[in-house]
Specification:
The chain has about 280 residues and is α+β, with helices and mostly antiparallel strands. It has two domains: about 160 residues, Phosphorylase Kinase, domain 1 (2-Layer Sandwich), CATH 3.30.200; about 100 residues, Transferase(Phosphotransferase) domain 1 (Transferase(Phosphotransferase), domain 1, Orthogonal Bundle), CATH 1.10.510.10. The protein is built from seven helices and 13 strands. It has a six-stranded antiparallel sheet with strand order 1-2-3-4-6-5, with helices on one face. The protein has a three-stranded antiparallel sheet with strand order 9-11-12. Helix 3 packs across helix 4, helix 5 packs parallel to helix 7 and helix 6 packs antiparallel against helix 7. The longest helix is centred in the middle third of the chain and has 24 residues. The chain starts with 5 loop residues before the first helix and ends with a helix.
Length: about 280
């Protein structure tokens, strides 16, 4: 079942002013550095006349919620696209507890912000939320430019990231964890995940939190998501351990689905790409 009302998704506007649950497209208010890599995809609506319409929540999480938007130009049925809006929570959130280990090797220019994050103050939590959003957006941009299967990063504004919606119509693609594949299908998906890991490793990165819950399967293609903790393996003293954990978790899942997944061999192959 779709999470969303198809009649809402196809909404066309009776006026040229945003109505309830709508806003003007935020694309014109972003700078080139806040937008995804060029060339921008053909499906993306970049008109200043477009509205962003809220269609519902796709998923709630510890640090962020994922919403579905339709970006469309009134009275132009050809100028429409669906976007996923990932919104990191601000000062009220307390779930950035793992950030210290992931962010070793990253630096903040503002020493006041550094102290606030360390104290866990309201300002520090707001800074953490924005840092996680920026880190995820930059990670998506990097992986997109490397040609790895990630949602195309459209733009970032504060703690909101807009990205390509992966799914059919308004139905979001299922996570790997939701599937019960046969052996042949599982082997194909495992090979795709291994290629993703090799692509990351060649660029010097580990996902850092890889599992069957942050891999989507859409029309037979595995797509990697949830990248705020993307780890620079060489710069982060925890990098190799995080890569090894990624290998363990993903190989364990596929082994339980009949795949001969050797985590030690995979880790050795990946670490040789880095050093």
């Amino acid at each position: 079942m779709s999470l969303f009302d198809e009649s809402t998704a196809s909404l066309r506007f009776s006026t040229h002013q945003p109505g309830p649950g709508q806003r003007w497209s935020t694309w014109p208010s972003t700078t080139p550095t806040q937008r995804g890599p060029r060339p921008h995809p053909d499906w993306l609506v970049v008109s200043a006349a477009a509205f962003d319409t809220e269609l519902g929540i796709v998923k709630t999480g510890k640090e962020a919620d994922l919403h579905l938007l339709e970006r469309a130009v009134p009275d132009d049925p050809t100028a429409t696209c669906l976007l996923a809006a990932k919104r990191y929570r601000g000062p009220g959130t307390t779930d950035f507890h793992r950030s210290a280990a992931y962010q070793e090797g990253r630096r903040m220019r503002n020493t006041r912000d550094t102290r606030a994050v360390a104290r866990g103050s309201a300002h520090g939590r707001a800074v953490s939320a924005e840092r996680w959003a920026i880190a995820e957006f930059e990670g998506l941009c990097t992986l997109s430019q490397l040609g790895l299967p990630v949602p195309y990063p459209v733009q970032i504004s504060g703690t909101e990231i807009l990205m390509e919606f992966i799914g059919d119509g308004t139905r979001a693609a299922a996570r790997l964890a939701q599937h019960r594949p046969g052996r042949a299908e599982a082997e194909d998906w495992f090979e795709q995940v291994v290629r993703i890991l090799h692509g990351l490793a060649r660029a010097g990165f580990a996902h850092g939190d890889l599992s069957a819950y942050n891999l989507l399967v859409h029309r037979g293609q595995v797509v990697v998501i949830d990248l705020p903790q993307l780890v620079d393996i060489a710069a982060n003293p925890n990098g190799a351990a995080m890569l090894q954990r990624d290998c363990h978790i993903i190989c364990d899942w596929f082994a339980r689905h009949g795949v001969a997944a050797d985590e030690d061999l995979l880790f050795t192959d990946l670490i040789s790409e880095v050093f």
